[in-house]
Amino acid sequence: MKVPEWFTKNLFETALKNFFQNPNIIVTDLSTQDAIPAGENYTSDLFRTTIQYQCGKSGKTETMSVIMKCANEEGGVKEDLAKELNLFEKEIEMFGRTFPAMYEVLGEYYTLSSKCLYTCLTRHKIIVLEDLTTLGFNVLPRHVGFDLEHCFLVVEKMAQMHAASVIMYENDPSKVKLYSEGLYGNNPLTREWVATGYKALIDACSRWPGFEKYGYKLYALGEEALERGFDAQKRKLGGFNVLNHGDLWVNNMMFSYHSNGKLKDMRFIDFQMNIFTSPAIDLHYFIATSTKIQVKLDHIEIILDHYYAQLLANLAKMQYSLERVPSREQFKKDYNYRAFYGLMGAATVLAFVKAAEGRADASFENMIKDESKEGFRYHAYNNERYRKHMEHLLPYYDSFGILD
């Protein structure tokens, strides 16, 4: 990606002065490069900028690395999606109002995200974030997916975030006003993308021996498949609702490790798809898009049990009445009821996750519009990695009766 011309010393001085609350900061040098390769992010442009700066009279030069998250300004599906779903407005709200409110509940010990240095919506949409790689955090290879140990840590952090949002919402319901729609907002662009995903999956099933019946079932549902997926994410009147991350695929979680290689900590990143609804949404999406095949085969119920226990433990610490939390049976019933959301994630996002690295044509635009056998869509739905996951997930979702 081309570095924007408006990445000026003045912009970064403003960001650092805001973050450090120091009006005397002077930026002396900048160096910017792409933060991630092509095909690893689909809704914004990401750059890593190394800033050299001085703080006032001492003249000592300091260095800091930041992640610059910018709205795409070149037109096309990427820019349209960001506008349609208010992606930058939501993430700026998360860092500006929502996280501070949740950390008030959780305390400083709990860290769910990177620190935000600066945000702006005028002229250019910008979010300047702490570079977590400088603290030892890294993204795992998306092709591989998470083992059970990583899954446990993810759902522990998920339960912290969900529990804090329950208290936050009760204290001030306006804090979730912007989070009524997530990734699958019911708009023409998203509907076209989801319909394309189902069509490509139906087509792929016709080439997988023994899986043709799932293609037939999806084809028979027609438009109803879209409606069931969109309906599965809706809040139920009187239901138990939390602030879901809304986009928990592999690249939106970063992990750190002890010197002996043992898992130490994790952070969520990318808060553009948050949605206030049932916690089953994050669970279905995470299981569909981010877990190893062996986890999908053997450990889904264990993960759900671990999440539920962690949710109760966190709410109990916050002195929330557990009588108001769904029983394990009610929780599982709600998870089952929303199974079509998991299928929708598998039929759309999982194809991006399992696609080959480094494809220059990896984009929403090509996923929707390019129907050629050489194109990104055909590759994403017909590579062996995607097929292996779907060969387990299709029977799993069918077991809920959602395809009938």
TrEMBL record:
CHK kinase-like domain location: 127-317
SMART domains associated with the record: CHK
Name of the protein described by the UniProt record: CHK kinase-like domain-containing protein
Signal peptide from the UniProt entry: none
Organism (species): Hypothenemus hampei (Coffee berry borer)
One Pfam family from the record: EcKL
SUPFAM superfamilies: Protein kinase-like (PK-like) (SSF56112)
Gene3D superfamilies referenced in this protein's UniProt entry, alphabetically: 3.90.1200.10
